[in-house]
Amino acid sequence: MGEASIASELFLERLNYCIYVILLLIGLWAMLAKRNLIKKLIGMSIFQTAIILFYVSIAVKKEATIPIYLPEHDPHGEHSHNSSDENESSHIGTASGPVALEADAITGYANPLPHVLMLTAIVVGVATLGLALALTQRIFQGYGTIEEDELLDKLDRADERASLSPLILEERNARRRKKTTQSNGEKGRSKKKN
Amino acid sequence: MKVLSIIPVLAIGGLLLWAAQDFPKWGDVKSPASNSPVSSHFIGNTGVDTEVPNMVTAVLADYRGFDTMFETVVVFIAGMAVIAILKGSTKGRPRRKDHEVEAEPDLIVTNTVRLIVPVLQIFAFYVLAHGHVSPGGGFQGGVVMGASFILIALSWDLEKAISRFPIERCLTVAVLGILIYGGIGLLSMLLGGEFLDYAELERVLPVSREMARYHAMLGVEIGVGFTVSAIMFALYANLASEGRLKEGL
After folding, report:
1. Which of B13, B89, B232 sits opposite A21 (nearest CB)?
2. ipTM here
3. How many domains does chain A fold into?
4. Contacts of B82 in chain A (CB under 8 A)
5. For chain A, what percentages of helix, strand and coil (3-state, to nearest 5) are there?
6. What pTM was computed for the model?
7. Model confidence pLDDT, tens digit, residues A135-168
């Protein structure tokens, strides 16, 4: 009984959480396992989408509508025919004005807060994705690759070169120069290809 | 590495699914997200406090105005950073030709876009200005506006879009958007309230305190729309041309 009820509970009543977990895992795995920086960014975007789905699906409320007042609760409901602002303001100034909703009316609307949070998260997500793409483009310009292992190789080599003391470098360069001049002298044009 | 990384991923997945059993059911009216005092305050009092029918806009621009202001600043900083990273990065470098095709803009595409873009831009203004009474607002309208310029850049070329909306003007518009937002906040501070306490604007606007918040929210959304549309286009223009700002995709 236990196994079956857990499975049915997970996949029937909490399907939204299953989908969010699956999306999140796809994104996480792509960020961990993929070597390509662009594929990592795709993973990051999928991860973000999973979080957005999580928030929005938590805000779902049975028998409730979107968080925009229906005409009967609309503060401007009765005088929506007045088009100019001055008319509206004078009207409100004299009338008693809108009153706070009763508890049973409140259950008719979904919570606006998760929607607000995700609204800004989407746009900021686009902006940060753009920034990440720009950095990737710069890395490609600098190193000629966006594969992580090749990139690490190149970085290691650059580090090694930078960490040597200038004396050793000088010596090594001198040896190399001597070698090339020797080999050029011996073999003539055959070595030029290198 | 790929096999190894499966292990933590599956472990996290198992933990999350385990935790999901304690989460509220789909559409549960008694769930904390739907039943909290914060939620009922927003739903019950938005109409009294601000007279804005769209609660999402009211929470975005008024109750959480400080948050939204810095979200806008984040968008702006991201745009600045992209320009700073990519500007002049290809100096003295030969252009990579391998992925580009030399072709005239397609007649059918350009003529369709010629018809679509004005409608798209008017729709962007509609979404921006009606953010109070219907789904919409500064972020959405701004993105639609930026998309119209990206559409021009895609169907002609980047130069055409840049000639309509140069990057310098992009930056001016983006800064202007943040200044509008911060300016409304500062103005309400100078009028005796707190920062972004729009109700104090009743002293300069010929309306009640609630309607002052209503109209200040529109101003704030316009600022957000300015910044978002300009930065969206600046992001595209820089990324599509590696910061060269010509001969993009």
Report:
1. B13
2. 0.85
3. 1
4. 130-131, 134
5. 75, 5, 25
6. 0.81
7. 998 888 888 888 888 888 888 888 888 887 777 7
